[in-house]
């Protein structure tokens, strides 16, 4: 079971550090400014604006890592506040032991199949405080117990245990206990990944109460490539999902009361010329909800890139799109169309990059009169972006549904 | 504020932190062809989506920054433990794109993203 976020800071690491013995001190500042303007209003009224300056101070040593971020913000009101802070200590060796205390720094995350069982977005990270302890290093295994204080004085306890890669597979377990003002929950999640050489079955079991109705099973078999060559491989992925009617899943990532049988065929290229996938899903209890999807990308030697996709759910919904773009020198030009169950939209784009780090894009889209029957509503946007040496600035002019807006933004990271 | 700047959110200080066990690090190199872009970032479950799922909820322009090549490809290499990760590319700080060479897809915040298995 992977750690929630491997990078504890932007990948560049501390950009400016001071070494004092075995202790590194560093800081990082970020400035952001955004404004949205209505040019049609009297005096080009500023509708919304944001000014923000954040400063992060970090300390790291062999035993301890700590960081604190203060933010000054001016928007509807002016405020200075502690955005996040955390302290992490680890006693090295085998096994190693760690403890962590944080505020607005880390949220619960439990991986699942294609979607996490518990995603960070489930609760607002701005209002989470946590304390945790970890024991690890025994042949690569780890045990983690974390307590979270959520909004409304709800509490969440998450215990995770993960095995190392054992040569033939890996296993994980997570227990989630929520004590809330409105509800409570006890959920167990079991993960297994087994390498059978020909195929790797991944299985996730979820149990949120007693009885089968409170359980869910998710399965995917990845890595089965019956056809392969120098061009790449064709992977066949069987999919099975079942969830009981009474399953309680905090993030809602597992739809309850559904049985889904599926099969995907994925074209994995060694080069970049052609890639794609086709898949289908079928619910025996609801054949009308059977769905299928197809997508493909192609790049020609002439520099054209094509994207095609189509998907449908029974006779209820349908979507198809086709797009192409040509990059040549400093310029690019492309177009596409998107057809949905009851609408068609055509899009054209043109881009120009006079120098590295500067890019301007014009995009126009509209629904044809012959399809819509009503007056077409073209959407236009013109954007120019500058990004270099930690400074990013963007200016966007967009017109949609008869309303024009100018959005300007800039940010800088320093030192 | 998310409603105000859906396409131009810039950064909060990404602070996703966790005690990171010494699990089997493996390498993954990601590429996308986009000549002329001012910037391209690789964001995913492992870096708090470039800061979007961190406190403040703004995109860090340095998070997942990819390196441009003369052939128009942008490249980034990350070390990740074995597992599944959702990821996408953000071009010019606002245009979300799934990996054109990886059609195992799902969604993140309503956007189509790719799934990386290591």
What is this structure's SSE topology?
The complex is a heterodimer of chains A (415) and B (118).
Chain A (H helix, E strand, L loop, with lengths): L16 E4 L2 E16 L6 E16 L3 E11 L3 E14 L4 E8 L25 E10 L2 E9 L5 E8 L6 E11 L4 E11 L5 E8 L7 E8 L1 E6 L2 E12 L15 E11 L4 E9 L8 E9 L4 E10 L3 E12 L2 E10 L2 E10 L5 E9 L2 H4 L6 E10 L2 E10 L2 E12 L1
Antiparallel strand pairs in A: 1-2, 2-3, 2-26, 3-4, 4-5, 5-6, 6-7, 7-8, 8-9, 9-10, 10-11, 11-12, 12-13, 13-15, 14-15, 15-16, 16-17, 17-18, 18-19, 19-20, 20-21, 21-22, 22-23, 23-24, 24-25, 25-26
Chain B lengths: L24 E9 L6 E5 L22 E2 L4 E9 L2 E8 L3 E3 L7 E4 L2 E7 L1
Antiparallel strand pairs in B: 1-4, 2-5, 3-4, 5-6, 5-8, 7-8
Describe the structure.
The complex is a heterodimer of chains A (415) and B (118). Chain A is mainly beta. Chain A contains one helix and 26 strands. In chain A, 27% of the residues are buried. Chain B is an all-beta fold and 118 residues long. Chain B has a single domain (26-117), classed as Immunoglobulin-like. In chain B, the strands form two sheets. In chain B, strands 2, 5, 6, 7 and 8 form a five-stranded antiparallel sheet that branches. A three-stranded antiparallel sheet of chain B has the order 1-4-3, with no helix packed on it. At the A-B interface, strand 2, strand 3, strand 4, strand 5 and strand 6 of A face strand 4, strand 5 and strand 7 of B.
């Amino acid at each position: 079971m992977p750690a929630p976020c491997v990078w504890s800071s932007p990948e560049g690491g501390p950009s400016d550090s001071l070494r004092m013995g075995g202790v590194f001190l560093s800081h990082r500042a970020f400035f952001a400014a955004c404004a949205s303007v209505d040019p049609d209003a009297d005096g080009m009224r500023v509708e919304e604006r944001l000014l923000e300056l954040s400063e992060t101070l970090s300390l790291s040593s062999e035993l301890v890592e700590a960081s604190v971020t203060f933010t000054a913000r001016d928007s509807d009101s002016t405020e200075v506040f502690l955005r996040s802070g955390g302290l992490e200590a680890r006693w090295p060796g085998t096994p190693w032991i760690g403890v962590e205390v944080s505020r607005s720094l880390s949220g619960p995350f439990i991986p699942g199949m294609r979607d996490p069982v518990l995603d960070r977005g489930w609760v607002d990270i701005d209002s989470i405080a946590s304390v945790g302890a970890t024991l690890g290093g025994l042949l690569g295994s780890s045990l983690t117990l974390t307590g979270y204080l959520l909004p409304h004085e709800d509490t969440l306890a998450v215990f995770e245990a993960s095995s190392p890669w054992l040569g033939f597979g890996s296993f994980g377990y997570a227990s989630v206990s929520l004590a809330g003002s409105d509800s409570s929950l006890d959920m167990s999640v079991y993960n297994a990944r087994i390498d059978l050489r020909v195929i790797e079955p991944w299985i996730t079991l979820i149990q949120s109460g007693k009885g089968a109705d409170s359980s869910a099973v998710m399965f995917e078999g990845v890595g089965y490539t019956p056809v392969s060559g120098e061009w790449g491989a064709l992977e066949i992925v069987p999919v099975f999902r079942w969830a009981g009617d009474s399953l309680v899943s905090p993030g809602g990532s597992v739809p309850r009361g559904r049985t889904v049988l599926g099969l995907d065929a994925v074209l994995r290229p060694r080069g970049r010329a052609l890639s794609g996938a086709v898949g289908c899903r079928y619910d025996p209890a609801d054949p009308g909800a059977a769905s299928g999807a197809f997508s493909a990308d192609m790049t020609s030697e002439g520099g054209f890139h094509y994207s095609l996709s189509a998907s449908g759910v029974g006779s209820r919904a349908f979507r198809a799109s086709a797009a192409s773009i040509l990059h040549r020198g400093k310029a690019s030009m492309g177009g596409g169309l998107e057809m949905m169950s009851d609408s068609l939209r055509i899009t054209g784009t043109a881009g120009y990059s006079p120098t590295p780090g500067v890019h301007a894009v014009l995009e126009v889209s509209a629904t044809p009169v012959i399809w819509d029957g009503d007056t077409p509503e073209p959407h236009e946007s013109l954007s120019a972006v500058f990004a270099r040496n930690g400074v990013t600035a963007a200016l966007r002019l967009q017109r949609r549904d008869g309303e024009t807006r100018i959005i300007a933004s800039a940010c800088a990271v320093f030192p | 504020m998310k409603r105000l700047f859906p396409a131009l959110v810039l950064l909060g200080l990404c602070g996703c932190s966790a005690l990171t066990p010494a699990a089997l690090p493996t390498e993954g190199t990601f590429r996308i062809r986009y000549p002329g872009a001012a910037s391209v970032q690789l964001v995913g479950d492992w870096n708090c989506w470039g800061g979007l799922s961190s406190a403040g909820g703004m995109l860090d322009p340095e998070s997942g920054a990819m390196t441009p090549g003369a052939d128009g490809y942008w490249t980034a290499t990350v070390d990740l433990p074995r597992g599944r990760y959702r990821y996408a590319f953000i071009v010019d700080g606002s245009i979300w794109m799934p990996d054109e060479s990886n059609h195992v897809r799902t969604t993140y915040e309503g956007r189509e993203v790719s799934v990386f298995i290591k």
